[in-house]
Design goal:
Layout: H1 3-10, H2 13-26, H3 40-45, H4 54-57, H5 70-77
């Protein structure tokens, strides 16, 4: 929804609260490197959690659900390898 329209209808607090929730959802505590984030909080805020789109069915193979070697990925992220 457009923030100016939201401000005119509900007041100043509504767009500020929505922007704060967007920032909080984007800065969620990082998961372990071998777990992909689903961004469910952002999808819920954007009202796109109930729709099925192209990316849900024919997604990029780089975002597949294949799990790598967890210990090796964590050690690589920490700079031990």
């Amino acid at each position: 929804m457009n923030f100016s329209t939201l401000r005119n209808i509900q007041g100043l607090h509504a767009p500020l609260k929505l922007q704060m929730e967007y920032r909080a959802a984007r800065q969620v505590i990082q998961r372990l490197p071998f777990l992909q984030s689903s961004n469910l909080a952002l999808d819920t805020l954007r009202n796109s959690d109930e729709s099925i789109g192209f990316e849900d069915i024919l997604n990029d193979p780089a975002h597949s659900e294949v799990m790598g070697e967890p210990h090796m990925m964590v050690e690589y992220k920490l700079g031990l390898l």
